[in-house]
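Below is a filled-in request sheet from our internal design queue. Each sheet records the structural input a requester submitted and the sequence that came back. We keep these sheets so that new team members can see what a complete request looks like end to end.

REQUESTER: design group, bay 2
PRIORITY: normal
MODE: inverse folding
CHAIN LENGTH: 196
BACKBONE (tokenized):
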């Protein structure tokens, strides 16, 4: 019996995309894509999601690529320009689920420093009963330990819970620890999956 719904944040409740910052900055989507693929990479950002201080990671990358210093520093100096707002309809859906009696939680890979900027801005986050942020815990999805930590801290059972994420690897990991994983593609598809 489903009692608990655990949401990822980026790509599910919140629209986060570095291209929102870098496409206008470069004035060229292809150049922005090259920069995000080769300089400020997903793997580099993930270090901060895993608890590494932003300043430390930034200084190391600037030393490696001094010709890109301005662009590298922009990543965290102007982080909020990467935010596109709440995913349409998701705040309403979370309210609806809570009204039906479901317990609602958050589990997100996010730097504790940048999450502190995001946290006060988006009302959907206030609807979470509790949340786990990877940067605070120094462990991140798809590591099984962060799911086990969530179950323990939230005081819930895997068999009574679903986890919603836009990353297939994280959905797979949730399934492996006994939580039903749902790959988020749209609000409409999510509603169908939840109520089927």
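RETURNED SEQUENCE:
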């Amino acid at each position: 019996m489903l009692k608990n719904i655990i949401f990822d944040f980026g790509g599910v409740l919140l629209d986060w995309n570095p291209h929102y910052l870098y496409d206008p900055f470069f004035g060229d989507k292809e150049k922005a894509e090259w920069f995000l693929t080769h300089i400020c990479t997903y793997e580099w950002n993930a270090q901060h999601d895993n608890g590494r201080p932003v300043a430390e990671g930034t200084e190391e990358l600037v030393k490696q690529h001094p010709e890109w210093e301005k662009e590298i520093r922009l990543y965290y100096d102007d982080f909020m320009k990467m935010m596109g707002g709440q995913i349409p309809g998701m705040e309403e859906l979370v309210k609806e689920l809570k009204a039906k009696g479901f317990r609602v939680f958050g589990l997100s890979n996010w730097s504790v420093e940048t999450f502190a900027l995001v946290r006060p801005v988006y009302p959907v986050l206030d609807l979470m009963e509790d949340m786990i942020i990877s940067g605070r815990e120094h462990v991140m999805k798809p590591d099984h330990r962060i799911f086990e930590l969530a179950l323990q801290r939230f005081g819930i059972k895997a068999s009574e819970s679903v986890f919603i994420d836009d990353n297939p690897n994280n959905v797979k990991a949730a399934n492996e620890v006994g939580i039903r994983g749902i790959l988020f593609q749209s609000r409409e598809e999510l509603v169908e999956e939840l109520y089927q």
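SHEET NOTES:
- Residues 4-15+85-195 form a domain with the Rossmann fold fold (CATH 3.40.50.1000).
- The chain has eleven helices and seven strands.
FILED BY: M.R.
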